[in-house]
């Protein structure tokens, strides 16, 4: 009975789902540790949603797999744009918006079945914001503290 329920696509979907949730947790934890609004829940939903759209686009219309995936990129870009705030000469949440966009790419990697690439990208996404930044103040400008 269980073998009939978890045959083919369902088992692959469960693996993709677990990887997506783990990636969302890892990336989201990094963002929450820096006090950002887009944390574990947001990143988990973006990655899992991107994975699901990509996963379904491969099964529903195999001859045009990139059609739905392309819309995922646009939609997540729109979501990220809503996070960016300009306050005077300072731009805030740019890194968080980029993190959301990158999270969508991680989800798409899982949805297309590129699990190792998705795992590596997750690690990279958690490490990049922790890298030392070179900052040189220009006269009349302020640093972006994202």
Layout: helices, strands, pairs:
Layout: H1 2-5, H2 9-33, H3 40-60, H4 65-81, E1 85-87, E2 90-92, H5 94-111, H6 115-127
Antiparallel strand pairs: 1-2
Helix pairs in contact: 2-3, 2-5, 2-6, 3-4, 3-5, 4-5, 5-6
Overview of the structural elements:
Helices cover 67% and strands 4% of the residues. The chain is mostly helical. It has one domain. It has a two-stranded antiparallel ribbon. A hairpin with a 2-residue loop joins strand 1 and strand 2. Helix 3 packs antiparallel against helix 4. It is elongated.
Average predicted local confidence, pLDDT: 86
Strand ordering within the main sheet: 1-2
**What is the helix tally?**
6
Structural class: mainly alpha
- Largest β sheet strand count, sense and barrel closure: 2 strands, antiparallel
- Regarding quaternary structure, what we see is single chain
Termini separation comes to: 51 Å
Helix fraction by DSSP (H/I, runs of at least 4): 55-70%
Q: Structurally, how many domains make up the residues? A: 1
* Percent strand: under 5%
Shape call: elongated
Protein name: MgtC/SapB family protein
Organism: Fodinibius salicampi
Keywords: Cell membrane, Membrane, Transmembrane, Transmembrane helix
Main location: membrane
